């Protein structure tokens, strides 16, 4: 594994376990088995390292979420697959998930990859709303109804307040999201 990748993984774990403020570059460097020079060669400061860890986690999450939704055959499958994938990803990527529930670094929201992700998901949603399968709502509200309960459950689980792994409650939360978002009372 390349030194940059080792640094990112070590930083991901340190930021998840200690928080961005408490994790030190020395701890990260030691965990990665990297020299001071190697660390600063790849990341000019802790803020940039945190930003790169955050972007890496977000990109990984968005890729998995989009595959689940984008490959769906209908609106119900897409909505429920998105929730289940969110919960599976959190369960299997706890350090990355903890990073994503922490403060977002500046500039991430405006990145090309983030805009592309939301454009694709919004376009998928609008297609299904146009033919009446899902409610025609503002996308901010769609996002909250679609993933809000799953995100809150995952956040509580990551904090140690829930014992059942998120992926094990996926069916219930996915079904609830579909009930909230479907266009009719089927």
What does this structure look like?
The chain is mainly α and 186 residues long. It has helices at 3-18, 25-32, 36-42, 46-70, 75-92, 94-100, 112-130, 139-158, 170-181. It is built from 9 helices and no strands.
By DSSP, the count of extended strands is: 0
Cα-atom Rg, whole angstroms? 18 Å
Biggest sheet character = none
Shape: elongated
Low-confidence stretches: none
Number of helices: 9
Order of helices and strands: HHHHHHHHH
How do the helices and strands line up, and which of them pair or pack?
Blueprint: H1 3-18, H2 25-32, H3 36-42, H4 46-70, H5 75-92, H6 94-100, H7 112-130, H8 139-158, H9 170-181
List keywords for this structure.
single chain, mainly alpha, 9 helices, 71% helix, 186 residues
Describe what is shown at a glance.
The chain has 186 residues and is mainly α. The protein is built from nine helices and no strands. The termini are far apart.
């Amino acid at each position: 594994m390349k030194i940059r990748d080792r640094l990112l993984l070590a930083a991901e774990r340190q930021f998840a376990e200690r928080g961005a403020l408490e994790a030190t570059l020395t701890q990260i460097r030691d965990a990665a088995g990297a020299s001071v020079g190697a660390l600063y060669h790849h990341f000019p400061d802790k803020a940039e390292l945190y930003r790169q860890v955050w972007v890496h986690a977000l990109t990984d999450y968005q890729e998995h979420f989009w595959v689940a939704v984008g490959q769906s055959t209908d609106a119900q499958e897409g909505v429920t697959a998105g929730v289940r994938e969110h919960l599976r990803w959190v369960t299997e990527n706890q350090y990355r998930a903890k990073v994503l529930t922490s403060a977002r670094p500046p500039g991430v929201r405006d990145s090309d990859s983030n805009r592309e992700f939301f454009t694709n998901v919004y376009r998928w949603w609008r297609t299904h709303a146009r033919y009446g399968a899902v409610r025609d709502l503002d996308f901010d509200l769609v996002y909250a109804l679609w993933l809000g309960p799953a995100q809150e459950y995952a956040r509580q689980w990551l904090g140690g307040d829930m014992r059942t792994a998120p992926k094990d409650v996926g069916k219930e939360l996915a079904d609830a999201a579909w009930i909230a978002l479907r266009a009719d009372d089927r």
